[in-house]
Every structure is written in C-alpha cells, then in structure tokens.
Predict the structure.
Amino acid sequence: MTNQAYSTQIAQVADLKDYVGKELGLTKWVEITQARINMFAEATEDYQWIHINPELSAQYSPYKKTIAHGFLVLSLASKFAYETYAIGDATMGVNYGLDRVRFPNATPVGALLRGRVSLMDCKEIPNGARFKLKMEFELQGEERPACVAEFIAQVYADPNIKSGGMAATQPPDA
C-alpha cells in the first residue's frame, strides 16, 4: 500500500472491470480548516457549537477543538474520485448514490484528510458501466479513518473515441 498520491488512467470504460479488487488511487492531503467548516455550516444551516464555536469546543468537546461535520467529510467523495482515476473514452459520469457509510473517527479542525479509492464492483450497462468504489477518508496520524463509504457511479463511453491511448498506472512503490 503506497503513501504517495497517484491516479490510475484507464483506457476504456470496458476495461474498468479489470480493476475490480484493486486500488485506483490516493489523493493528496487536504486540510480541514475552520473556514471550510464554517462555510459548510452556512451552506447547510447546521450551526452546532461543536463545529463552529472554538471557545465552547475548547471547554466542552472531548477533542478540545471544533470538528468537521461528517457530511462535510463525505462531500469530498466526488473530488477524491475525480483525483484518483480517469477513463479515457468516458463521455459522461453520474454519481449514482452511496452505500454503507460509516464515520469511525471525528475530524478536528486542522486535521489533514485524504482519500484512498478502490474499485469494489463493476457491471456492464448499455454503452457503459455501473460500479462501486470503496472510499476511505484517512486522517493523518490516526489509525481509524474519518469516513468509509461505498460510492456508486455510472459512466458512459464516448462512441467517437477509438480504443488505445491511455495506459494504467501503478502506485509508485508497487
């Protein structure tokens, strides 16, 4: 298992099935800042003190600082998917849903978070594929991740792109 960020380039939608059970990529670290937490609170109208009030959090929180909303962490799923794989002949992708989401660890303000993405399942559909990704939202210095989710998506092949062109990459220390 690598610790350097990388992405897998897959030539064709039809090749996606060859990656079932394999890690597709690892993102760079993202800092969870108080500004990001506050912006999420504003967008969702979720103003719980544990997220937005450093003074109360320092006094009453077991973490002694604010923590990110669980759904703020989960909102990074599309970004992390985009950064960990690409399919050469894909013309359109659709985020189809989530399955089995868990939040085993809190994400305190100032934490560094990254996504480790693996392909769990892939089924062919007309002109494309429906697939499930396992996404682990790792916290730097923590054994337990902030979130583990199964991300379901569909992708459609562009019939105008001919095969060949992109080669799959492996993790740097594989």
